[in-house]
Design brief:
This protein is of the alpha/beta class and about 200 residues long. The chain is built from 7 helices and 5 strands. The chain starts with 6 loop residues before the first helix and ends with a helix. InterPro entries: Prot-tyrosine_phosphatase-like, Tyr_Pase_dom.
């Protein structure tokens, strides 16, 4: 029988920020996972060279705008470029996501690493650095999206999706007692289907 554990006590035991892969060979950057606490801590992100955040949680948002007047037509407004580049996937931590959303999550994370911003005043945040993938607790949605990404971009190192999940569980220091729901089984199943679809899209057997 599996017993629910207090989420706050579990979160307290996890590192605030976890380096899950150093210097990805295709992109040359470090990849991190966290919950909301690290994703909202701009000082911590800067200290770790994080310039891009990919938020996997539909029920969580951040306001990274500190200088709304950095772009001329944003002056005096409540919006503007954030202090870092910010991408949103918006997964539910359980059932309810369309299957195609996990495919989209993989491509959004790739876009966060590959997108080249134009040299224009309206695109002031062009720094390319390390990437953080987050959700509320950094235990389920962010883990499965990162695992799918590692499995598909480094197939010789992570031959299976399960191998990528195991690697991230270790690097994130997820408690073994929580593995049955970190990440959620329904998300693992969706990621497995997404991996097959991506291979079909890209013509990889």
């Amino acid at each position: 029988m599996q017993f629910e554990t207090d989420p706050q006590s579990i979160a307290a035991e996890l590192p605030k920020l976890s380096l899950v892969y150093e210097k990805h060979p295709l992109y040359g950057v470090d990849l991190f996972i966290s919950g909301k606490e690290a994703a909202s801590d701009l000082d911590l992100l800067r200290q770790n060279g994080v310039t891009t955040v990919v938020n996997c949680a539909v029920n969580l948002d951040f306001n990274y705008v500190r200088q709304a007047d950095l772009v001329s037509d944003h002056e005096g407004s409540a919006y503007g470029p954030g202090e870092i580049r910010y991408y949103k996937i918006g997964l539910i931590d359980g059932s309810g996501n369309p299957d195609t959303q996990m495919v989209a999550a993989y491509y959004i994370l790739r876009a966060a690493l590959e997108q080249i911003l134009p040299e224009k005043q309206s695109y002031p945040r062009r720094d390319r650095g390390n990437v953080l993938v987050n959700c509320r607790g950094g235990r389920s949605r962010s883990v499965i999206v990162m695992a799918l990404f590692l499995h598909l971009t480094l197939p010789s190192e992570f031959v299976t999706l399960a191998a990528a999940i195991a690697h991230i569980r270790e690097r994130r220091q997820l408690a073994r007692a929580e593995w049955y729901k970190a990440p959620k089984p329904v998300l693992i199943e969706a990621a497995g289907r997404a991996a097959e679809w991506v291979r079909l899209i890209e013509g990889v057997r």
